[in-house]
Amino acid sequence: MAFVSITNMLTKAKREKYAVAQFNINGLLWIQAILECAEQLKSPIILAVSDRMVEYLGGFECIHNMVLSIHKKLNITIPVALHLDHGMSVEHCLQAIDAGFSSVMFDGSHSEIAENIKNTQIVSNYAKQKGVSVEAEVGTVGGNEDGLIGGVKYADFDECLRLVSETKIDALAAALGSVHGKYNSSGPNLGFKEMERLNNSLKIPLVLHGASGIPEPQLKKCIQFGHAKINFNTELVTVWANSVRNTLQSNPEICEPRLIMLPAKEALEQKIKTIINIMGSSNRA
Ligand code: 13P
Question: Where does dihydroxyacetone phosphate bind (predicted)?
Fold first, then answer.
């Protein structure tokens, strides 16, 4: 299988105190840029598709086949996970697994904990038979992600322990103040005390959602407190959009897509490399 689960990748990262970046993909350009940069830096990497983007990108099989064929074309040798981000239903998670995704997140964080656990168990039992890893969420990451808008709700400590002990998940996204999209002018207010307590009580790695806009020293602190998977989307779409805007504004006659997209790909690559270096995952493949 070309893609690996996040289990070994994250266990090693947590033990050696670095993190693996999850980058959300928004089209072909992202897949090429992420795989090329990770390969150059010899870093393990997680390519993720937010559930709300699946149809836009052609469906699970199309996404899987697209990533697979670019993976082959580029002769990728580093560990790559293909992950469903914020799977909104059990059915979607199972469909992603059947299509060849090597990792899924079941996001039952909007349900009561008993319901969240029950559904996570169904996903986890199915995933384990296929060697696929599972991430689950407790609490709510705030902000706006691909149209889903929500306020921050801190993960409850006991609910986190319960979910982890009653399911066989590989990584836990415990919402502790981060938000998807842009932070307001006062910046992130992360619950480091809660993070430390959780990390001391859990063996599995933590996942940080909403990492775009979190200053580097705080990201490093999150890694120290057990976060081995850190998710980025907004920082990438922002540099992409700025580049496209600049190219169009400074060349009003331009219409060849390749000439508009190549500078945007370079902008993505610069950002991806900067983030991988902050994660400390270079030369860990
Ligand atoms: P950002 O919006 O901060 O990039 O977060 C992305 C994310 O957490 C995807 O799950």
Answer: 181, 210-212, 231-234
